[in-house]
Amino acid sequence: MTLSADAFAYVADLVRRRSAILLQPGKEYLVESRLLPLARSAGLSVEELVARLRTRPVESDVTAVVEALTTNETSWFRDSTPFSALARHVLPRLVAARGGVGRLRVWSAACSTGQEPFSIAMTLLDGLPPAMDAEIVATDLSAQVIERARAGRYTQLEVNRGMPAPMLVRHLTRAGAEWQVSDAVRAMVTFSVHNLLDAPPAGPFDVVFLRNVLIYFDLATKRDILRRVAQVLRPDGVLVLGAAETTLGVDDGWDRVSVERGSVYQRAARRATEPAGVVTAAAGLPQPWLPPAVTTAGATRGEAG
Amino acid sequence: MRALVIDDSRTMRRIVAGTLDKLGFETAEAEHGQAALDLLEGGLDVDLACIDWNMPVMDGLTFVTSVRANPAWRDITLMMVTTESEQSQIVRALAAGAHEYLIKPFTPDAIRDKLDLLGLAVEGQPA
């Protein structure tokens, strides 16, 4: 049975208002499959579930529907490149810039069930000098996944997804049929519910992971989100997007830097056209962060600024 | 890329080999560690071996130790694919020279993730 166009339009509008995520026509199957477990648990069809929501929009039901449609699959060290880039390029550079002391702060936005922030924590735990520590602020729209993430417990199937075996034995322990993330790793991560359309968590951050989430938003919303990220990212901080995502053509306030097989983004050097407030915020901007292999682009930009 | 799938269960060999095949690998199969060693000694050249732990004749851990003892095979990436899921077993396999460890049951995505970690993902292959 296919969801009626009317019911789909209602759900798409609801999800867009609550999360700004766009469900284009043609995604009826997604709505149908994601809402089926909810509908079944209420003894209804998906169509009936939507009809009930329209006549009696109880907040808990609305939240459940939005969460079911905005929660995404995730894995450990997803795509691997961002994490090796973090360990081998971004981290050494930030450690040197901070003189090897203090705390690095990372925002893992749209962190889903926690694999990304815990992967970041493990990478930092293995790579930071003794006089430094790190705090990872992990956020997601869904209260349900944040609750799961906080527990730090994963099934065997989940642990199989992308977790390097040496990391597994170092940072997790068997807990019955599941695996428990170590206290040392969990202590580095704080989880909270956050909507990317709202004001960002308190900065500043040295690194922001915002992966595979911009793709769900329209251009204006992407731009808004990137500007909010820029507000809380240190001038020499690094933004990590999903492999298929870019700031190019969305927000020209970023420079793309090639690292390993992928890219990271940095706030663009101060420009004369920017309003005074932004100039003040960027005052004392250090040399743009660059991986060892790249030298020319930074030099050119430094002179222009 | 070439892979050797070592498991005494024909069904399991077929599942692992089928997944690797979809990811662009050529595959060969062996039903225990000794048969796998015979293939390698006979000149079979592989990039990856997926190895069950509990098998007759020669178990997976012994196979890993044997491969690591021969410098000619040092470029072969070794991944345990087994139901053995105790932390101490994983530590033993890694200490013996296995690069990765995948616990059964697994999804095809999990094999792809592991290959990505090992730098063995074949470019241009669908997920």
Please render the helix and strand layout as text:
The complex is a heterodimer of chains A (305) and B (127).
Chain A: H1 5-19, H2 28-41, H3 46-55, H4 59-70, H5 81-97, E1 102-109, H6 115-127, E2 132-140, H7 143-151, E3 153-155, H8 156-160, H9 165-171, E4 172-175, E5 178-181, H10 183-186, E6 189-193, E7 205-210, H11 219-232, E8 233-241, E9 254-259, E10 262-267, H12 276-281, H13 296-304
Parallel strand pairs in A: 1-2, 1-7, 2-6, 7-8
Antiparallel strand pairs in A: 3-5, 4-5, 9-10
Helix pairs in contact in A: 1-4, 2-4, 5-6
Chain B: E1 2-6, H1 10-22, E2 26-30, H2 33-41, E3 48-51, H3 60-68, E4 77-82, H4 87-96, E5 100-103, H5 108-117
Structure described in brief:
The complex is a heterodimer of chains A (305) and B (127). Chain A is of the alpha/beta class. Chain A has helices at residues 5-19, 28-41, 46-55, 59-70, 81-97, 115-127, 143-151, 156-160, 165-171, 183-186, 219-232, 276-281, 296-304; strands spanning 102-109, 132-140, 153-155, 172-175, 178-181, 189-193, 205-210, 233-241, 254-259, 262-267.
